Amino acid sequence: MATPYDRIPDRRAIVRRRALEDALAHLVEDVSPGADLPRPQVLALLREALATGRTEIRRRFEEPGPLKNDGPAVLMATSFLMDQLIRVIFDFAEAKAYPAANPSAAERLSVVATGGFGRGEMAPLSDIDLLFLRPYKQTPRGEQIVEFMLYLLWDLGLKVGHATRTVEESLRYAERDHTIRTALLESRYIWGDRELFDELMKGYTAKISAGDGRDFVEAKLGERDQRHTRMGDSRYVVEPNVKEGKGGLRDLHTLYWIAKYLYRVNEPAELVAKGVLTRDEARHFSRAERFLTTVRCHIHYLSGRADDRLSFDLQREIATRLGYQDRPGSRGVERFMKHYYLHAKTVGDLTRIFVAALEDSRRRKPRLAALWQTLRPRQLDGFRLDGERLAAASNDQFEKDPVAILRLFHVAQENGLDIHPASLRLITQNIRLVDRLRNDAEANRLFMAMLTSRHDPETTLRRLNEAGVFGRFVPDFGRVVAQTQHDMYHTYTVDEHTIRAIGFLARIENGTLKEDHPLSAEVVHKILSRPVLYLAVLLHDIAKGRGGDHSMLGADVAMALGPRLGLSDSETETVAWLVRYHLAMSGTAFQRDLMDPKTIDTFAALVQSPERLRLLLVLTVCDIRAVGPAVWNGWKAALLRQLYNAAERVMSGGTLSGGRVERMKAVQAEVAQHLSGWTDAEKEEHFARGYAPYWLSFPIDTLARHAELVRRAERDRQPLAIEHRIQPDRSVTEITIYTLDTHGLFARLAGAMAISGANIVDAKIFTLANGMALDTFWIQDLEGKPFDGPQRLARLAARVEISLSNRLDINRELEAQKSSWPKRDRVFTVQPRVLIDNGASDTFTVIEVNGRDRPGFLHVVTRALTRLNLQIQSAHITTYGERAVDVFYVKDLFGLKVVNADKLKQVAAEVEKSIRAFDARFEPAMKAAE
User: Fold this and answer.
1) Which of 160, 104, 112 is nearest to 133 (CA)?
2) What helix, strand, coil percent values describe the chain, rounded to 5?
3) For 904-929, what is the mean pLDDT?
4) What is the mean pLDDT of the chain?
5) What was the pLDDT predicted at 97?
6) In Å, how far are 925, 926, 927 from 921, measured between CA atoms?
7) What is the C-alpha to C-alpha distance for residues 706 and 432, in angstroms, rounded to an integer?
8) Does 661 have pLDDT greater than 50?
9) N or C: which end of the chain has fewer CB within 10 A?
10) Half-sphere CA count of 569, side-chain side, radius 13 A
11) What is the pLDDT of residues 242-266, one digit of tens each?
């Protein structure tokens, strides 16, 4: 009798069952009946057979040959190997471990594979699911055989899920539990009493799968929805779970279970004859399954465990193994992940198609006529209303009127309806018709109406994207569908990020996110053109993955697309400007000193108008929010508000520069009003300590708190005074330190904070006229939240004190902590880069340092700047996943900007050298730790 295993070439090279049985028989031939078996030797033979088989299967998969990168072949071969070992162990247990001259009918036992093993699709390191089937009440000998087998399998290092039941128990449990029903649906006879298994299958067909299957289908689809929610409900996450994630293998398995349960098929290809899938769709099913299975096999082999998460550290290696090579402007790992997401999307398409076919087939059954009568189709704007879903009026509607494709989505959006899967399938079959619509005025009007609708544009755009219409109608968007960026900053693919950004814009506009974004929720209603804002958000990343500056390339796309979508020339120009400068506001807010008048003047000169400022603010917020769930925080919100308000003040005729002495005097006068209990002499003494930049760098209440801190420290002769203020609304803790200014103070403080688990996000450094340093740091914990908790703050203060007394070896502490650093951070390499800008500030040289973010990075950079005899006034720290961008405002020892060209070159070279030395020191240790 032919079996699927017949397709495995040279099976004996994997395992020789007869030879293994003979070896075991020879091992125990001299063992007397009733005597103990030589278990260690038995286990050694089985372990060798298992290792030999696994090695051969992996060799075929990884080495050049017909089975290279053939995931399904690995699954089948692994199932075959396990089958043979289980058969050998079963026979050995029956004949040698617990022999019986004349076994009774009650001692019959059948070994059945369930789950993926039952399908004959066992991944390299997956669990084995077994059902030990007995006729009725278990006998002592039967229990002994089962126990003997399980212990041997466990000792071989295999994970075994098992159950021992009678046929009657199995059927009874299957009636109540859909999980058990599914397991039996996939069950396969391995060895033992075949009649027991056949009896189980006959009872299963008669009792379990004889109904219409509605409860089973609903249960399986419900399980799928719950699993999607648990896994993040998006197939476009950067580290997807190949098995359990949305669009993964488990979704294909769900379709397989339903198909087998309802249509009695064993292969997806058989659904073509049933009229459920077309040949092309069945081919897509097989391709997606093969790709995902192959990736899963690589994950198992590379990780050495039954792990199904396609993590960063595996993506690049698997891409290489599958032949994805880097090309100019295109990384192989990003093309590999794009193909992964496209296959995951295919799985989603197949799910919709299958469910539609399922509903149609069930509707034709007479006994369900009463149910479907309540869902009798009605008409709505030229389409059929099928329950709560909108459907095409006829199978040729789109051929006769291609614009109806877009109109279908628009009518569904305006009426809060879903779209029938059968109509989505019809669109897929007619997708080429969308090409004709790009220059159709009505089609473009409908698209803009959907984009700017007040009825959930995010869901509609996602539907358009899932159906393949979006990328066809806007080919530039089609280029970023499933486009990924191999880094830790971007959580989603470019298309998913963009659609989510539109969702955030809609929620800001309708007031849902008013508490999170009060300023944006206010200014969005002052914007003159909603189409400009929505189109800018849609296009801001449209040119990613093209190898150039995506902002500049995206502006060109906007200029070409705007008129087509009905925007005027001025509106199109504004959209293009927003796309071109969509990173300007975040870059300025997070990487520049917002108390430096030149910063605000430069930004205001770029933006030029209050309308553009409003547009840019909302675009920036939506962009950051859509990057990932942990990227936005109160600190970023506060910086953006500060920049917006300062720029608006300048554009409204105000000024932040000029009259410096007058502004300083005005600030001091306000501070004086907060210093109750101070004599005039004490106030004058304190005001004389700070230079003008200090008085113009903080709010009045902060300056008053500083004054009290300095007064107490001077009165009590404290060599070190530390004060903290937790600011939950800004997601930071403000740390103020007053101590003697010494060379390298910033570097030592940065090191102490690094080893305490604090991330510095901003810092202002001032030396007062009395030679004391008054430094303020804004810090967060490793999750981007305020660094709080009495114990943590006390430990931080203690380490600062030890560091300032030169009793803390920061490098040694970092060395001791490196094993706790996240492993996935080690996957990425960020080449250090130092950029120096002497035009960003009138009084400081601005140094931007890029490198891989890790504990101690800021300490290394500031120590290098200290060695170069540079004074740091402020530091602005931003991280983008694994990349750190630290910006420093510095002067030389004489308090002047660094203008000497040779000195500037030396600064860049020495800082880069220090970072490379730091990387080299920790890289070998980190790789060894992996």
Assistant:
1) 112
2) 60, 10, 30
3) 77
4) 88
5) 85
6) 8, 10, 11
7) 68
8) yes
9) N
10) 0
11) 998 888 998 888 888 888 888 888 7
Cβ–Cβ < 8 Å for 521, 513: yes
Give the pTM. 0.82
Confidence label for 64 from pLDDT (cuts 50, 70 and 90): very high
The amino acid that residue 929 corresponds to is A
191 beta partners: 111
Q: Supply 339's token pair.
A: 């193909």
Lowest mean pLDDT among 250-254, 435-439, 680-684: 250-254
With a pLDDT cut of 70, the percent of the chain lying above it is: 93
Domains delineated in the chain: 4-172+191-205 (no CATH), 215-370 (1.20.120.330), 377-473 (1.10.110.30), 474-657 (1.10.3210), 658-708 (no CATH), 709-929 (3.30.70.260)
Element (H, E) at 694: helix 692-695
Q: Which pairs from 233-236 meet CB under 8 Å and 24+ separation?
A: 234/492, 234/496, 235/341, 235/344, 235/345, 235/347, 235/348, 236/341, 236/482, 236/492, 236/493, 236/495, 236/496
Structure tokens at 783: 């999750």
Q: How far, CA to CA in Å, does 167 sit from each of 103, 108, 112, 131?
A: 20, 12, 12, 11
The three state secondary structure string of 243-290 is: CCCCCCHHHHHHHHHHHHHHHCCCCCCHHHHCCCCCHHHHHHHHHHHH
| Per-residue pLDDT tens over the stretch 401-415 | 999 999 999 999 999
Name the pairing type of β-strands 389-391 and 418-419. parallel
Nearest C-alpha neighbor of 341 from the set 475, 537, 521, 495: 495
Q: Which two tokens stand for residue 14?
A: 């994997």
- Report the C-alpha gap between 219 and 615 in whole angstroms: 47
The answer to whether residue 930 scores a pLDDT higher than 80 is no
Cross-strand partners of 451: none
Reduced to 3 states (helix: H, G, I; strand: E, B; else coil), residue 881 is coil
Give the separation between CA 226 and CA 94, rounded to whole angstroms: 43
**SS3 state at 314:** helix
In the structure encoding, which two tokens stand for residue 431, read together?
């997708």
